[in-house]
């Protein structure tokens, strides 16, 4: 009897242990699923160009770019896919773009129209969540983890948003749905234009390893070349390196690369985004031949800068003033200095010092300010613009 009783007790305890583990695992897994974030990234397709084509249907099907005039040495801001097939892309000079695509139609930008369309999109986004983080006029992150819309389905919400934008604005947007911002942004670009890609948590482990490192946001041309030289082409290759190795190669970005190679991104969607700086710049049709000619352009640029500053609320406090110069040989220099105010006399002094660095004709001039970082815990101590011991230069 003793043997039978002990066996019975052992079996009973074993069953209870198994039951406890099963219930705990189910509860934990259910809790994990419940806490799993649902992030949508929306990116308008060729936004500026799409608005121009929408407002002028005669442009439909033609290679179109938004940018500056060739005769004034303009630059391409964006272009549609018909133009991209010829190698045209943003930040390219209009003259070069025309050489690549002689039939390219370049139209001037209309920022008021783009801002209006952007605001209309954000109003649609706000119907689904208050957690909307705009990245620019044409893209945003949405955290819909707690949204009850579309029965709580992020995929259905993304599909509905795309349909509503197309109906209301007559432009298309691409969307990505994933558990975090990194993967949502990758997903939105996966089937551009006019696509929807969903990466559920169960798919992350199969999706991420073969992902090319060039797909990682923040990996530009220089970083990509460095990764390739190290024999790293994919996230699977990144996983073969320790976090220590990657940090040695890429500094703090190495630790982020390590996390992203496993699909890990803990960044929250931040609904309120503050500007870090405001600036204005202008590329001139003919090079400004001298310092005197550059100084003559300061009042006009300063007026434009003040107009932009007047549109900001009083919580923005100026921390630095800066000037930017692009010389005729395309070399660029920026000079900034701590300043509690942005006065026109300050910009004249900064321009005089910056001009000496190149001492040649000037293609572009820019003025700007940087703001106090209100999120910093350190005490802010404002210094005078003319304290020569506290200059901060960037080239």
Structural summary, described in words:
With 395 residues, this protein is α+β, with helices and mostly antiparallel strands. Among the domains are: 65 residues, MutS, DNA mismatch repair protein, domain I; 65 residues, DNA polymerase, domain 1 (Orthogonal Bundle); 118 residues, DNA polymerase, Y-family, little finger domain (Dna Ligase, domain 1, 2-Layer Sandwich), CATH 3.30.1490. Helix content is 41%, strand content 20%. The chain has a 5-stranded mixed β-sheet. It has a 5-stranded antiparallel β-sheet with strand order 9-12-10-11-13. Strand 5 and strand 6 form a beta hairpin. Helix 5 packs antiparallel against helix 6 and helix 11 crosses helix 12. The protein is globular, with a radius of gyration of 27 Å.
- Number of helix segments? 15
**CATH topology of the domain at 277-394, what is it called?**
Dna Ligase, domain 1
Largest sheet: 5 strands, mixed
User: Looking at the structure, what is the overall shape?
Assistant: globular
Supply the key terms.
395 residues; alpha+beta; MutS, DNA mismatch repair protein, domain I; DNA polymerase, domain 1; Dna Ligase, domain 1; five-stranded mixed sheet; five-stranded antiparallel sheet; 15 helices; disordered N terminus; disordered C terminus
In short:
The protein has helices spanning 2-35, 47-55, 81-84, 94-100, 111-125, 154-169, 181-188, 204-207, 221-229, 235-239, 243-250, 252-260, 291-295, 298-310, 344-358; strands at 39-44, 64-67, 76-79, 105-107, 132-136, 139-143, 173-178, 196-198, 277-288, 318-327, 332-338, 362-371, 391-394. The protein has 395 residues and is α+β, with helices and mostly antiparallel strands.
């Amino acid at each position: 009897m003793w043997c039978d009783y002990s066996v019975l007790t052992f079996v009973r305890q074993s069953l209870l242990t198994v039951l406890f583990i099963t219930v705990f695992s189910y509860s934990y897994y259910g809790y994990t699923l419940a806490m799993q974030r649902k992030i949508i990234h929306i990116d308008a397709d060729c936004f500026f160009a799409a608005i121009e084509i929408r407002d002028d249907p005669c442009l439909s099907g033609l290679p179109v770019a938004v940018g500056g005039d060739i005769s004034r040495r303009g630059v391409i801001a964006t272009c549609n896919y018909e133009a991209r097939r010829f190698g045209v892309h943003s930040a390219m000079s209009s003259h070069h773009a025309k050489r690549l695509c002689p039939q390219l139609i370049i139209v001037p930008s209309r920022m008021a129209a783009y801002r209006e369309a952007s605001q209309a999109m954000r109003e649609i986004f706000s119907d689904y969540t208050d957690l909307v983080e705009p990245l620019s006029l044409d893209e945003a992150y949405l955290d819909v983890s707690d949204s009850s819309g579309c029965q709580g389905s992020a995929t259905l919400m993304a599909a509905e948003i795309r349909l509503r934008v197309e109906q209301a604005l007559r432009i298309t947007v691409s969307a990505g749905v994933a558990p975090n911002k990194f993967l949502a942004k990758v997903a939105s670009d996966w089937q551009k234009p006019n696509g929807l890609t969903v990466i559920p948590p169960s798919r992350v482990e199969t999706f991420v390893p073969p992902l090319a490192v060039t797909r990682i946001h923040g990996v530009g041309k220089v970083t990509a070349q460095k990764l390739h030289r190290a024999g790293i082409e994919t996230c699977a290759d990144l996983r073969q390196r320790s976090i220590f190795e990657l940090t040695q190669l890429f500094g703090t970005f190495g630790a982020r690369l390590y996390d992203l190679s496993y699909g890990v991104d803990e960044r929250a969607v931040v609904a309120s985004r503050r500007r870090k700086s405001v600036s204005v710049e202008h590329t001139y049709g003919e090079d400004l031949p001298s310092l005197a000619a550059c100084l003559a352009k300061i009042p006009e640029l300063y007026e434009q800068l003040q107009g932009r500053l007047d549109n900001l609320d009083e919580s923005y406090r100026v921390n630095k003033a800066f000037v930017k110069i692009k010389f005729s040989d395309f070399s660029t220099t920026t000079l900034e200095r701590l300043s509690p105010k942005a006065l026109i006399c300050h910009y004249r002094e900064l321009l005089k010092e910056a001009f000496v660095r190149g001492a040649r004709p000037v293609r572009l001039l820019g003025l700007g300010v940087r703001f106090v970082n209100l999120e910093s815990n350190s005490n802010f101590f404002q210094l005078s613009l003319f304290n020569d011991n506290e200059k901060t230069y960037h080239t």
